[in-house]
Design goal:
heterodimer, A: about 190 residues, mainly alpha, 5 helices, about 75% helix, about 0% strand, globular, B: about 120 residues, 6 helices, about 55% helix, elongated
């Protein structure tokens, strides 16, 4: 009796969990888009750190984030036994996967801040519009991924799909910004 | 400290920094702080909507060059500045499809008279 009642409750809760997670991600994306649209772009350069210009910082941070994200994907493939290098998975593999994800996120935040605060959500041409949309989508998808990791009982396919989506989005964001910069202005100095 | 604990610490620090950036988005909201400039009128509206994101809200420069106090020196004749806004130059885009001739005149007048 107990088992027969527990089953339907568990099955029913999965779509609710999924919906809540997707709604949270959508809320983040929409909030960023609304802020970028409503906020008056300052056009300022809030920080350069040790770089010669903010745009150089953004290009290098975005490139470093993409590099780390690629490593994170490789670590995930090893965690899921899709690749077998190294032959025996070390016990710290999961934590290394987490660490690369955290640092990747940490690198994207100052870049996104400058984009939102100084430039806002723009639609002056196709590249800029796509970059603005993807930038908002990225943080929503990232939110979904983090919540998916923390929520138990979700379908096994969810994490790889969401993780792959986050990585693919980052590749497109990088292509519409850093690669565009390289093509227009040359390889950036520090 | 174990590796897991180290990762936990980095995670918390990153979250705090990210929250700090979110707060900064609102704390640093300009809200028309371009000191000494007219904050109304057609030129101001056009400038805010099209120019401020690169040249700064007060014309102090940013992604694009500084305008405040130097635009009349760089373009002694207003028609030269109008041509640049209309046709674009180097990395600055053309605005001829986005702004009417009147809007371009308004925004050029704004940059020449109100951005100090």
């Amino acid at each position: 009796m107990t088992a027969s009642t527990a089953g339907p409750v568990t099955r029913a809760s999965v779509p609710v969990k999924l919906l809540a997670i997707v709604l949270a991600g959508a809320a983040v994306s929409i909030a960023l888009g609304v802020y970028g649209r409503v906020h008056d772009p300052t056009g300022e350069k809030p920080y350069t750190l040790f770089f010669s210009d903010t745009i150089n910082l953004k290009v290098w941070f975005a490139s470093a984030a993409l590099f780390l994200a690629a490593i994170q994907v490789l670590l995930a493939l090893r965690l899921y036994d899709k690749i077998h290098i190294p032959r025996t998975a070390p016990p710290w593999l999961g934590d290394a996967h987490r660490l690369t994800g955290i640092v990747t996120f940490g690198l994207t935040v100052p870049v996104a801040y400058q984009c939102l605060w100084a430039l806002g959500f723009q639609s002056t041409d196709g590249r800029v519009l796509l970059h603005s949309l993807l930038g908002c989508f990225f943080f929503g998808a990232f939110t979904i991924k983090v919540l998916s990791v923390r929520t138990h009982g979700l379908p096994n396919w969810l994490l790889p799909v969401v993780g792959g989506t986050v990585f693919a989005t980052l590749v497109l964001i990088w292509t519409t910004s850093a690669v565009w910069f390289w093509r227009e202005f040359g390889f950036p100095s520090f | 400290m174990t590796f897991k604990r180290f990762v936990n610490v980095i995670e918390i620090v990153t979250l705090v920094v990210a929250l700090g950036f979110v707060v900064a988005l609102f704390a640093n909201e300009p809200g028309g702080r371009a000191g000494g400039t007219a904050k109304s009128g057609p030129g101001y509206d056009v400038y805010l909507a099209n120019c401020a994101r690169c040249h700064g809200q007060g014309g102090q420069g940013g992604v694009g060059p500084k305008l405040a106090g130097v635009v009349t020196r760089d373009f002694p004749d207003a028609r030269e500045e109008i041509a640049v806004v209309r046709d674009g130059r180097a990395s600055m885009p053309s605005f001829k499809n986005d702004l009417s001739a009147t809007q371009i005149q308004d925004v050029v007048a704004y940059t020449r008279t109100q951005l100090k």
